[in-house]
Design brief:
By secondary structure, this protein is of the alpha/beta class. It has a single domain, classed as 60s Ribosomal Protein L30, Chain: A (2-Layer Sandwich). 18% of the residues lie in helices and 29% in strands. It contains two helices and five strands, in the order E-H-E-H-E-E-E. The chain has a five-stranded mixed β-sheet with strand order 3-2-4-1-5, with helices on one face. The longest helix is centred in the N-terminal third of the chain and has 18 residues. The model has no long low-confidence stretch (mean pLDDT 95).
Length: 125
């Protein structure tokens, strides 16, 4: 049976720089794809958020790159809620996928400074 599942991920950047944001987002998405054995046709949609200190580019643009290839996937970007003392320069994503995997088999990906958000899902990269 095929289910629609959500895959979470997050990363951080050092600077509010277009190329750095796109590179970090591509890295995050590539890890999500690899860890969950995804193909572009499996992906239903992706919702990206960024903290208030990031506005150089929409991270969804990285998903449309040749490296990721999500040309027919619905993508959305938004600002993260500005909670006091929360992690800065952070890019988060929620990817909806069609899969036969159970929720327990889904591998969420947290890298770089975002490891502090969900240490149990941390990856060494």
């Amino acid at each position: 049976m095929i289910y629609c599942r959500g895959i979470r991920g997050a990363t951080t950047v050092e600077r509010n720089d277009r190329e750095e944001i796109l590179a970090a987002t591509r890295e995050l998405l590539q890890l999500i794809i690899e860890k969950n054995d995804l193909h572009a046709e499996d992906v239903v949609s992706a919702f990206f958020t960024v903290t208030n200190d990031l506005d150089a580019v929409h991270p969804a643009l990285a998903a449309r790159s040749k490296a990721i290839g999500w040309l027919d996937v619905s993508l959305m970007c938004a600002r993260e809620i500005p909670v006091p003392d929360s992690l800065g320069k952070c890019i988060r994503v929620l990817v909806h996928v069609n899969t036969t995997r159970t929720n327990a088999e889904i591998q969420h990906v947290y890298i770089r400074g975002a490891v502090s958000l969900r240490p149990t899902f941390a990856l060494d990269v």
